[in-house]
Amino acid sequence: MTGAARELAHDVLAEVQEALGVELLDEGLLVTALTHKSWVNENPAAASGDNERLEFLGDAVLDLAVGHLLMEAVPDAREGELSQLRAALVDERGLARVARAAGVGRWLRLGRGEEQSGGRDKDSLLANAYEALAAAVFLDRGWDAALALVRRHFGDAVGPSPRALLGSDHKSRLQEEVQRLRREPADYRLVEESGPDHRKRFTVEVVLNGQVIGRGTGGNKKEAEQSAAGAALQALGIERGKERA
Fold first, then answer.
1. Which of 77, 198, 199, 218 could pair with 81 in a Cys bridge, judged by C-beta atoms 3.0 to 4.6 Å apart?
2. For residue 70, what are the contacts with CB-CB under 8 A and spacing of at least 6?
3. Measured in Å, how far apart are the chain's first and last C-alpha atoms?
4. What is the dihedral of CA 143, 149, 152, 155, to 10 degrees?
5. Dist CA 88 CA 78 (whole Å)
6. 195 neighbors 208 (Cβ within 8 angstroms)
7. What domains lie within the chain, and their CATH numbers?
8. Using CA of residue 61, residue 62, residue 66, residue 67, what is the dihedral sign?
């Protein structure tokens, strides 16, 4: 066991690995993945650093793995729809739900301030830690293990009908954000209509302050507008945005 791994009890590390469904060769990666910067600030002599570098890598690992699951689940989906589905799964709230279900919060190493302010149940901290754990699995056991991790935790969410993930009202949410930012209302314009009459495809752009901020397609104009609004939310950093804690 490495020096970093000694900083968490062996039974805790075993519990983490059981929840992840994988046994790591370098348990020190788990310790780092579970360490928030507030803990490092209070323990500068500790062997392990915080989880921010692992979080950076984990973000890419999760994008790729969840994208892989969606490609399997909806082989007829176009790139824009796949991007929106992935964003719905791996936004901060989605990652926090998965982390909470796996029990990640109880293993986090937090500074006193974060501990006292309820950091173990903060969406941002849980989401970041889960990304870091995904990176730890990828670095230690490779792509197949990372994909298995994501399949274990996201398989039910993808399910047989992943398009249900897009059932939320993106247009209303975008309008709320536009009002909050005190900008002009978003405008939707139809830019393309294609396909035979029985299988029409509509493409819509959403324009804000004269700039196109989202583009989406659908089987009717309403679907296309919702798709465009979802893309706009993602572009504005609202769907996927994460506030550092």
1. 77
2. 77, 82, 85, 86, 89, 158, 162
3. 30
4. -60
5. 16
6. no
7. 5-164 (1.10.1520.10), 168-235 (3.30.160.20)
8. negative
Q: Which residues are catalytic?
A: 59, 131
Within 10 angstroms of residue 154's Cβ, the number of other Cβ atoms is 20
**Whole-number pLDDT of residue 207:** 92
Q: Which residues of 232-244 are buried (b: 16+ CB within 10 A; e: fewer)?
A: bbbbbebbbebee
Q: What is the pLDDT of residues 75-132, one digit of tens each?
A: 887 887 788 888 878 888 889 889 998 899 999 999 999 999 999 999 999 999 999 9
d(CA 19, CA 153) in angstroms, rounded, equals: 10
- Radius of gyration, alpha carbons of the chain: 20
Amino acid identity of 104? V
How many Cβ atoms from other residues are within 10 Å of residue 37's Cβ? 17
**Do residues 73 and 81 touch, judged by C-beta distance below 8 A?**
no
Distance, in Å, from the CA atom of 17 to the CA atom of 245, rounded to the nearest integer, reads 25
Q: What does the pLDDT read at residue 138?
A: 98
The Cα diameter of the chain in Å comes to 68
CA 187 from centroid of its chain's CA atoms: 28
- Asked whether the beta carbons of 168 and 187 are under 8 A apart, the reply is no
